[in-house]
Amino acid sequence: IFKISFISFFSHLSLTNIARHLKKLSLFFSPGPPSNVQAIPVFKQTIRVLWDPPLEPNGIIREYRLYYRKSIADSLLTDPTEHVLSGNMKSKYLPQLESETEYSFWVKASTSIGVGGNSTVVRQMTQEQVSAHFLRAFDTLVQWKTWSDQTKLFP
């Protein structure tokens, strides 16, 4: 019964009107998954996870939920760690991870309607040595050097 009335309702509308009504209906659905998820090692025990908003936000994104856990054989038996972040954040530094360990990361978006589906799962290993390729526009690069008795303050 619902399908018949739904089809007959749309049969009286032009394609432009149908698209307009479907766009309004999309606001009643939870958001799609965040896109372009990346996990980049930045320090020995720190990984930065970055993402873009969902391609189909279906409303205003109120928060993101970032999940991660060790990528081990029995990882399905362990609950992931969850961070709830405001909807304007698109990255998170995760410090104090175990060195030389692979982690799995994924993100969900949330609107007033509900929480959307999982993004693609990204795996990354913490690394002993990291390079500066993780920077985006407006990031600041801080370079650490060790001090020794032979370091000259002024050349």
Structure at a glance:
This protein is an alpha+beta fold. It contains two helices and seven strands; from the N terminus they run ααβββββββ.
How is this structure best described in words?
With 155 residues, the chain is α+β, with helices and mostly antiparallel strands. Helix content is 14%, strand content 30%. The protein contains 2 helices and 7 strands, in the order ααβββββββ. The strands form 2 sheets. A 4-stranded antiparallel β-sheet has the order 4-3-6-7, with no helix packed on it. The N terminus is likely disordered.
- The dominant shape is elongated
Query: What's the arrangement of strands in the largest beta sheet?
Result: 4-3-6-7
Cα-atom radius of gyration: 22 Å
Beta strand %: 25-35%
Distance, first to last CA:
85 Å
Question: Secondary-structure element sequence?
Answer: HHEEEEEEE
Low-confidence stretches: 1-8, 140-147
> Helical content, roughly?
10-25%
Q: Main beta sheet: strand number and arrangement?
A: 4 strands, antiparallel
Q: Secondary structure elements and their pairing?
A:
Layout: H1 2-11, H2 15-26, E1 35-43, E2 46-52, E3 63-70, E4 81-86, E5 91-94, E6 102-110, E7 122-125
Antiparallel strand pairs: 1-2, 2-5, 3-4, 3-6, 6-7
Q: Which descriptors would you attach to this protein?
A:
2 helices, alpha+beta, three-stranded antiparallel sheet, single chain, 155 residues, four-stranded antiparallel sheet
